């Protein structure tokens, strides 16, 4: 026999998991146009965080090889079409290309420019605007210009493409993926250096385009499928945790809603799992993870888990809400930390150790905060960002 409350709780859980699974099953189509050797493949490697020695797109291919439309799949959800120009799209009688562009539709169009401005790219830009939901323009090989010249060239490109003042061209450097490429210093050749994630250190400016693309995709619920392909998950983890804390704070004071805090936590745990591992965990796994953090052993029913930390009224006072929020923040930050340290959710001992430490840290931070701030999302965002971005903790 389910109580009415328990019923409502399960419905909410189904609803939130339904939304998440929609996001996880979304598709993302990217159409990239740019002249041969402008650095499309290089840019795409940089964009998708490919390691220097494991490029996802072949760089430095001979011109004959690249003058045709190429479709590359990234993971399960993303397809990228890479083409030198419209001619090639029209020439390619490939059903796959037509299907991609006309039937499935293009979410993101990217125009890859390089070198000095010329009128020939306007046509490609217009095509992208017609066929893609949103177009981003990058000027690749920005390293081939002095800073002063770069600004002049950017301005000239804007004029050639007929951009309005608020339309942007992102200067980027995607060098480092050509296996033949070496760094030269005082006549000596050196291997190109890589960062902690194995990406070439020469890459610059990608973060800016990517953030704007992610912001656009978030509105369509398509950012998760891109983030799961990227190396650094921390920004999305911080946003996911903050949003969960805000929702939990909102639920805490509404009669009958505080129960939803457990649903919010379970969904956030599933979201974080997906971001870090690329796999969804199911509802009951997520629910039992919430149980792991609750002191009493309350089995795997979310209803019992949440009830165990709620007062009989079901409405939290400020002090209790602050505790609920501290626990939510610590629980979700611990899950992120666990994954980023290379553990899995099965490593319960590590998880609980991290959780206990974070609870203390967060509690300490809250003591220093203004009383009025205790349910302010910005406070949580600051605390969580400090924890996730600080390697020491
Ligand atoms: N200097 C410089 N070279 C780059 C940059 N991006 C790519 N390249 C080089 O340009 C060449 C062509 O790159 P590729 O990605 O194959 O171009 P695509 O034909 O447009 O796919 C390769 O040798 C790359 O290493 C960059 O930002 N700066
Ligand atoms: Mg290429």
Describe this structure in words.
- The chain is an alpha/beta fold and 393 residues long.
- It folds into 2 domains: 4-23 and 231-389, no CATH class; 27-220, P-loop containing nucleotide triphosphate hydrolases (Rossmann fold, 3-Layer(aba) Sandwich), CATH 3.40.50.300.
- The chain has 16 helices and 8 strands.
- The protein has a 6-stranded mixed sheet, sandwiched between helices. The chain has a two-stranded antiparallel ribbon with strand order 7-8.
- The longest helix has 23 residues, at 318-340.
- The model has no long low-confidence stretch (mean pLDDT 90).
- The structure holds guanosine-5'-diphosphate and magnesium ion (MG).
- Guanosine-5'-diphosphate binds next to α2.
Q: Please state the CA-atom Rg, rounded to the nearest Å.
A: 24 Å
Task: Work out the helix count.
Answer: 16
Bound molecules: guanosine-5'-diphosphate, magnesium ion
**Estimated share of beta-strand residues:** 5-15%
CATH architecture of the largest domain: 3-Layer(aba) Sandwich
C-alpha geometry: elongated
> What structural class is derived from the secondary structure elements?
alpha/beta
Query: Which CATH class of the largest domain is shown?
Result: Alpha Beta
CATH topology value of the largest domain = Rossmann fold
Annotation, overall tally of beta strands: 8
What is the N-to-C succession of helices and strands? HEHHEEHHEHEHEEEHHHHHHHHH
**Averaged pLDDT:** 90
Largest sheet composition: 6 strands, mixed
């Amino acid at each position: 026999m389910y109580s009415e409350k328990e019923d409502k709780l399960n419905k909410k859980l189904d609803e939130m998991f339904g939304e998440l699974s929609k996001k996880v099953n979304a598709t993302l189509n990217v159409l990239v146009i740019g002249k041969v050797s402008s650095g499309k493949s290089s840019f795409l490697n940089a964009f998708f965080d490919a390691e220097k020695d494991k490029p996802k797109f072949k760089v430095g291919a001979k011109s004959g090889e690249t003058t045709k439309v190429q479709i590359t799949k990234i993971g399960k959800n993303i397809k990228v079409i890479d083409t030198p120009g419209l001619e090639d799209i029209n020439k390619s009688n490939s059903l796959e290309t037509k299907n991609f562009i006309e039937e499935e539709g293009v979410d993101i169009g990217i125009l890859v420019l390089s070198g000095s401005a010329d009128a020939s790219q306007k046509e490609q830009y217009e095509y992208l605007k017609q066929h893609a939901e949103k177009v981003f323009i990058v000027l690749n090989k920005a390293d081939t210009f002095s800073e002063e010249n770069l600004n002049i060239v950017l301005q000239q490109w804007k004029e050639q493409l007929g951009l309005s003042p608020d339309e942007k061209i992102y200067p980027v450097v995607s060098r480092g993926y050509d296996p033949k490429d070496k760094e030269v210093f005082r006549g000596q050749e050196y291997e190109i250096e890589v960062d902690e994630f194995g990406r070439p250190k020469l890459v610059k400016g990608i973060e800016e385009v990517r953030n704007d693309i992610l912001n656009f995709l978030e509105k369509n619920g398509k950012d998760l499928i891109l983030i799961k392909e990227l190396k650094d998950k921390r920004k999305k983890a911080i946003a996911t945790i903050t949003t969960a804390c805000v929702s939990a704070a909102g639920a805490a004071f509404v009669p009958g809603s505080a129960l939803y805090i457990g649903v919010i936590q379970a969904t956030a745990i599933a979201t974080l799992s997906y971001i870090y591992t690329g796999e969804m965990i199911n509802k009951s796994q997520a629910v039992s993870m919430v149980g792991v953090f609750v002191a009493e052993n309350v089995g795997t029913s979310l209803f019992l888990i949440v009830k165990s930390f709620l007062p009989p009224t079901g409405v939290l006072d400020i002090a209790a809400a602050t505790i609920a929020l501290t626990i939510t923040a610590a629980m979700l930050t611990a899950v992120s930390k666990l994954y980023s340290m290379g553990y899995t959710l099965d490593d319960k001992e590590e998880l609980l150790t991290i959780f206990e430490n974070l609870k203390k840290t967060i509690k300490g931070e809250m003591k220093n905060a203004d009383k009025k701030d205790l349910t302010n999302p910005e406070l949580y965002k600051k605390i969580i960002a400090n924890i996730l971005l600080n390697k020491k903790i």
